[in-house]
Amino acid sequence: MQVTMTVNGTEVTRDVEPRILLVHYLRESLGLTGTHWGCDTSNCGTCVVLVDGEPVKSCTQLAAMTAGHEVTTVEGMADGATLDPVQQGFMEEHGLQCGFCTPGMMLTARALLDRNPDPAEDEIREAISGQICRCTGYATIVRSVQWAAAHPAAEGTTASEVPA
Amino acid sequence: MTTVEERPAREANPSATAADRPIGFGRIQRKEDPRFVRGKGNYLDDIVLPGMLHGAILRSPMAHGRIVSIDTTEALAHPKVHAVITGTDLEGLNLAWAPTLSADVQAVLATDKVRFQGQEVAFVVAEDRYSARDALELIDVEYEQLDPVIDVRRALDPGAPVVRTDLEGRTDNHIFDWEAGDAAETDAVFAAADVVVKQEMVYPRVHPAPMETCGAIADYEPIDGKLTLYETTQAPHAHRTLFAMVAGIPEHKIRVISPDIGGGFGNKVGIYPGYILAVVGSIVTGKPVKWVEDRSENLMSTSFARDYIMTGEVAATRDGKILAVRTNVLADHGAFNATAQPTKYPAGFFHIFTGSYDLQAAHCKVTGVYTNKAPGGVAYACSFRVTEAVYLVERMVDVLASELGMDPVELRLKNFIKPEQFPYANKTGWEYDSGDYEPTMRLAMQIAGYEDLRREQAEKRARGELMGIGISFFTETVGAGPRKHMDIVGLGMADGAEVRVHPTGKAVVRLSVQSQGQGHETTFAQIVAEELGIPPEDIDVVHGDTDNTPFGLGTYGSRSTPVSGAAVALTSRKVRDKARLIAAAMLETRPEDLEWEKGRWFVKGDPGAGKTIAEIALGAHGTVALPEGVDGNLDAEVTYDPPNLTFPFGAYICVVDIDKGTGKVHVRRFVAVDDCGTRINPMIIEGQIHGGLADGVGMALMEFIGFDEDGNCLGGSFMDYLIPTAMEVPDWETGHTVTPSPHHPIGAKGIGESATVGSPPAVVNAVVDALAPFGLTHMDMPCTPARVWEAMQGRPTPPI
Ligand code: FES
Ligand code: FES
């Protein structure tokens, strides 16, 4: 079947099997492999993307159900060479190790900051509580989100200034 | 030498800006992060090769059964299926069984029997991942169910079903008995001791469960016979050699590539049947074949960890001098003995159960047995079973403290090995390299406000509230290991490194180890930077590709910094020595007249006359007349054989509150003071510790792979195998002391597993401390609300 949705600001139409999950559609049909897959039971949250600005586990919904909606993946977070403050915060505060949970964590953080620009620690913890990170023990993820909250514009953060 | 450094305040630990970024050791941002935060990591499942097919594995639904027949007709008829492979097909290729890392064999696909639930039975290769799974449903397998061996305590009973009927002459489930220490000497000390305490404890089966599951892509090129194998592996070189041995493909025709790895923790050390099946699939179909397991496959069939039933005993004087420790262990190794550990040590490094204490005697006996459960045993950041050892001794010391009515910190302080006793020969054969334990313990107490916590606890107890304070002081043994003692399937545990400075002064360092998130691209660049004065951003770190890196055994057991880090430091020093000779020629002086400052050789007494490493590199590649015996270019290679292991240590304090009504344990605070010797990047070190602490809380409170009496795995998904989220862990409070390793070139000891090893006893000790009003002196992990509540009712039960 034909499915049309907006992904990272661009409208895309693809012929897909009706049963294909959004996570597989993004990864395999669109080649957006920054969205990960980590479990069979919708527990891990490595697949989180934003659908119309809200965090959604992309393994819990079919690509077909997403028709007509706006999807943001990690690849859509930076504005060209300028990183989202959340991305910058994760680098500043060591919010990632293996990086596998990171796209989902960052997108949830982005959605949180959009509705609550100055979240308390427990609000951050609650926001990411549907997602598992096996590497960081979460404290640095919390700090990363706090860094982003404290640097909403993160001005001048361009790719060339990021340490190589 | 020990330096106690104050815990840096959060604000005083900023990331270095471009201007004050250290050239060498210090806190810098990670070089790998820019790609990860953009979603541009390159994990195994992200790789797509032209014409690639997808594999899926049919697995056994039962723990023990005889295969009567397998019918693949319908699956083969599926329009998108290219091949269906069974054990019988593999028998024809002599690949039905593969050697394990512990001198046993493991079925790649079952031929005669299935021996655990989730065992590999058939492999489908199809055009896409959905069709491959569809086709699994079309395979018809008839089994005759057999009685399984599930309770490890019954595995050696005379009438127990024999798991390994495939092994000639096997009549029982016994794998090995292994001992360390002197039994007679230890028994004598016990016989004469005032106080003896004894406790049986279970370290339950848990799973590393990295967020990325295991997988492989095999690309066999029939014309030149070259196999390119992408794998989620922590040990690419060892895998290549083993593949050459197992599959009979010449080693120079195999290239193993380990791309970005989404967490390993020991789960990605072994060679799983799926990897071999991807290779067979590619050979059979002539196309690249990708196989990626799902989460249930990961939890049910790949390397589990722990599963030790330990009986510990401590002998002591009435005033709290610990004299001896002994233990008997029953080790459940599952259906195949597939643990990954040095050959001479079937129980890994469990014989460091003597801990941080100066003992007169010690003895352990470990018995390994087969059961109808998934194989494995060494995984999940355990430092080759130091985890079990530390849990045993740290739990036992608390049992003794409660028997003596002594404060658990006081008891530990009284028995620590003293700084002047290092290097310390313990009673089971280890030589601890360096240590100064008391300042580390005291720093943890200071950060925690130990006295105040005890006061608070007394007040709360008086009010009937349940608050517990748990202590753990661990000594690790990592960085395996001296090749004369340590090998894995005959491969000595040394690692290579190669450093090459390019003509313009930028450099590349090639490593045999492989990062799974530890930040090797940063840490190893910093070691080269420290030694050569080249900024870390000008150093490319190459790893995870056997065609482009020197041979070595890989990353596990916290061995990257102790072994490869040493190799990199020594290689860099070799480059520096060569640079000196070239600089002398360029400056028309003698090498001995030159002095080194970071990044530059200059003439003693004339600091203005010198050459930077970049200038020397250009000279080495250019037309400078090179001195006698010096070849061109600026590079070196070293294979490092560590003279000893390293012994990081730490003091952990955990504070818990327990809800009286529900038994729910809340970890309120966790203080961790670690000593890993010289610190390369404090930010990365802290991250490693945080991750391990979360592991410890997970194991202590919720993680558990259980089985029912039929052998059905009860921890086969993230619905049942619970991992801490941000809600279950506190904001970690860390501090550190620095006691360098005397035998490591930069004094670093390794940190990757310290917290996973050290934290579970701190949490359990805190839980038991909180439950002391109920007269409890022990309860087994996991301390789930239901189990804690049962313990409060006087029914603490071992996990099943
Ligand atoms: S893949 Fe685990 S929640 Fe979606
Ligand atoms: S960084 Fe590895 S799972 Fe979060």
UniProtKB/TrEMBL annotation, chain A:
SUPFAM superfamilies: 2Fe-2S ferredoxin-like, CO dehydrogenase ISP C-domain like. GO terms for molecular function: 2 iron, 2 sulfur cluster binding; metal ion binding; oxidoreductase activity. Residues 1-77 form the 2Fe-2S ferredoxin-type domain. Pathway: Alkaloid degradation; nicotine degradation. PROSITE patterns: 2FE2S_FER_2 (PS51085). It comes from the Bacteria. CDD domains: fer2. Keywords: 2Fe-2S, Iron, Iron-sulfur, Metal-binding, Oxidoreductase. Pfam families: Fer2, Fer2_2. The keyword rRNA-binding does not apply. InterPro entries: 2Fe-2S-bd (IPR002888), 2Fe-2S-bd_dom_sf (IPR036884), 2Fe-2S_ferredoxin-like_sf (IPR036010), 2Fe-2S_ferredoxin-type (IPR001041), Beta-grasp_dom_sf (IPR012675), Diverse_Oxidoreductases (IPR051452). This is Carbon-monoxide dehydrogenase small subunit. It comes from Blastococcus tunisiensis.
TrEMBL record, chain B:
Residues 38-147 form the Aldehyde oxidase/xanthine dehydrogenase a/b hammerhead domain. Residues 1-10 have a biased composition (Basic and acidic residues). Residues 1-24 are annotated as: Disordered. SUPFAM superfamilies: CO dehydrogenase molybdoprotein N-domain-like, Molybdenum cofactor-binding domain. The keyword Oxidoreductase applies. The keyword Manganese does not apply. Keywords: Molybdenum, Oxidoreductase. GO terms for molecular function: anaerobic carbon-monoxide dehydrogenase activity; copper ion binding; iron ion binding; molybdenum ion binding. Pfam families: Ald_Xan_dh_C, MoCoBD_1, MoCoBD_2. Its cofactor is Mo-molybdopterin cytosine dinucleotide. InterPro entries: Ald_Oxase/Xan_DH_a/b, Ald_Oxase/Xan_DH_a/b_sf, Ald_Oxase/xanthine_DH-like, AldOxase/xan_DH_MoCoBD1, AldOxase/xan_DH_MoCoBD2, AldOxase/xan_DH_Mopterin-bd_sf, CO_Mo_DH_lsu. This is Carbon monoxide dehydrogenase, large subunit apoprotein.
